Structures are given as structure tokens and as C-alpha cells.
Amino acid sequence: MLKARGGIAAVAVSLLWLSGCNEQMDEAPRVVEEVPSDAVVEDVASEPERALIDVEFSLHAGLRSDRRLTVEGTSNLPDGTRVQVIVEREISSVRWQSRTTISDGQFTAGPFGSGSGLPDGGYLVQVQSSEGSVQPQAVQNVIGREGEYLSGELVTQTRHGLGQVATYSRRFLVGSEPRRTRDQVDVIEE
Predict the structure, then answer these.
(1) CB 87 within 8 A of CB 69
(2) What is the pLDDT of residues 81-111, one digit of tens each?
(3) How far apart are CA 176 and CA 146, in angstroms?
(4) Separation of alpha carbons 158 and 84, rounded Å
(5) Most distant CA pair in the chain: distance in Å?
(6) Angle at CA 43, nearest 5°, toward 40 and 44?
(7) CA 55 to CA 34: how far, in whole Å?
């Protein structure tokens, strides 16, 4: 009787061992069937190329009744793009800045200047896109995480190696008697 029990136990162990091997053998082909190696290559190869954006800006500055400057502009950058507008008085390098967002292809910023208003003279107005890494995800999807899909003469590499940004500037003269200049400049009169 011991011999019969020992034989039954040996057969049971053998069956368990074989069923374990069968499970391992059954699992391996399923993994290969689920992820064929050529399917992964096809997915990577079929990704569409992103189009570059040839960045455009336009600026208009206006003097309010309190002699403070407002800036309006347009751009072909995607809606939601964060930009910074800087107004700098040329003679003293005093600067005012404001952050804003492009919406429907437009942005506004200001008013710029002290409470007593801007004195007559030359001003440089600059608009610059923020680095791609700080833009909303929807904007990053279009311009790239490091602005790599931005192109054109307005695009430059950041000083700190954080990718590319777009920068546009324009000079304005404020006052009713602007000085003579040969530079391209817009005159803003009261």
C-alpha cells in the first residue's frame, strides 16, 4: 500500500510540474503575439512631421490721457502663448514690464509708465514669448517643449540654453514735438 501511495504521489508531482511548464510555455507565445516587433517600428515611422511656425508679431502703442502707454499687438503664435511686454525709456533705461497671454491672435498690456505719465522722448517696446517649458501643454504641443518648432528672423536661442523664444521690438517717440531721426520710429502724439 505504501508503494501505491508513493507511485500516486510521484505521478501527482509529475503532473503538477508538467502543468507548470505548460503555463510558462503558453504565456511566452501570447506576449509575442500581442506586441509584434514590426508594429512598434510602424508606429514610430508613421508619426507626422510637425510644421515650423514662421513667427510674426505686430505692435501698436497708444498714449492715454494720463500719458501712460498701452500696447496692443497681434501674433501668429498659438492661443494661450505667454508673452512678456517691456517698455524701456531710451535715455534713462528705466523699464516697465507686464506679462500677458495671446488670445484670438491678439494681446494687450499696460498701462506703462509712472503715475505722472511718460516724459517726451524715445521708447523701445519689446514683446517676447516665454520659454517653451513654462508654456501651457497645448502651446508646447504646437511650438515644442524647447520652442524647437519656432522659426524665422524673430526667433533666437535663450541666454540660459532653455530653448528658443521669439522677440520683436519697435521704437516709439512720445510727444508733440518729436526730435528728428533717421531711424524707423513711430510717433505718438497727445
Answers:
(1) yes
(2) 999 999 999 999 999 999 999 999 999 999 9
(3) 44
(4) 14
(5) 122
(6) 90
(7) 44
